[in-house]
Structures are given as C-alpha cells and as structure tokens.
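> tool_call: predict_assembly(chains=two)
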Amino acid sequence: QLVLTQSPSASASLGASVNLTCTLSSGHSTYAIAWHQQQPEKGPRYLMKLNTDGSHSKGDGIPDRFSGSSSGAERYLTISSLQSEDGADYYCQTWGTDFSVFGGGTKLTVL
Amino acid sequence: EVQLVESGGGLVQPGGSLRLSCEASGFTFSSYWMTWVRQAPGKGLAWVAKMNQDGSQKHYVDSVKGRFTISRDNAKNSLYLQMNSLRAEDTALYYCARVCSSTSCYAADDFWGQGTLVTVSS
C-alpha cells in the first residue's frame, strides 16, 4: 500500500530557509508527487509537481522561493527567504490510475 | 481565471443523503479529470473520488464505495457528489479539484475550490 509520510510540524525563522520532506513507502520510490499549501481557513493551493529526477513544474504565480528536489524515496520542498505568509500546512500527494493519496501534512511555523 | 465553486453542504442526520455540486469556470471543463477531496475538522486532506472527462471511469476510496457516487454534466460545467448512508465520520469540508492534463503537471490536482461543509449529526 502506497503511503506518504510527512513530519507533523516544522519551524524556521523569518528570512531563513526550510526543507519539508515527503517520504514514499517502500517499493514506491519512482512516483512523482505534488506539493500543496493550505493557509489557515483557506482551500489548498497547488505549488508544484515534483518528479523522481528532481525536476519540477510550479503552478501559476508560485514564487521562485519555492523549489523541489528528490533523492530516492524522499521528495523535498524547500522554501527560502521565509515570509510570514508561508506559515501554513503543506501536503504532498501522489496518484495512480484509480487512486490518489495525501501525506498527513506538515504544519510550518515561521518564527 | 480558473474557478471552482462548491455548494450543497449542510447538516444531515446519520443515514441521510446529500448532493454536493461544483461549478467550474475559466477552463474547458469537459477536457479534464475532476476529483473530490475532503478534510475532517482539524485533520489532513483525504481523497474521496475522481472521474474522467466523459464519466466512463470513476474511482473511489474504499470507505465510500457503494455509498457515494461521483458524476458530472459537461454541458453545465458541473461536478457532483451524491452521498448516501452518511455517517458521522463523513463530516468534513469537501473540496473539488481539477486534475492537471498538461505535460508539466500531469495528474496532479492543480486548482482547488474553497470547499463546502458537510456535518453528519443527530
């Protein structure tokens, strides 16, 4: 069964950088994922699709401060020059022909 | 501008039914897979169902199979979720989302609505 694992929380200071991790379960390391941001009391917002080789394609209007990378079964979201509005929940997602699955989400606090 | 607007949520008793709607605009609705995702209060996102452009393929998470039905009306640019035999654990904010069809983001959910709240309680 395909499972995406995320740390429940992360924190970093204003202006700093942070890496959020999404880990694909054993046997599923070749799956691409998507990263989504959900600010408080808002609907999710698509950030990017991240492929196995680390190439990624961002959604409309997503700042250059957001980037992605991959290593094995790990998929990373890096946010640089943190701003207060980056404080949000971040979810990874993957899919197959007949399913979709989300990670548990990481709550990012900007200090 | 792509817009997805959900409606139809509300308070319903256990065992009851509800039909959610999602009205799409700003893109060619009939060209995209569409999906429903829910979020229980204080919890994370959970996929519910998805369907292809002409409705010939429909897929559901196991917990809603036999109770929920996803459908669409391409002439009305609308997606639906018929929910029957509702349970307390179906209480959630329900989002519709578009599934990307372009090469760059293929199969990712690339636009989301703001959600409609379903509360199942006696």
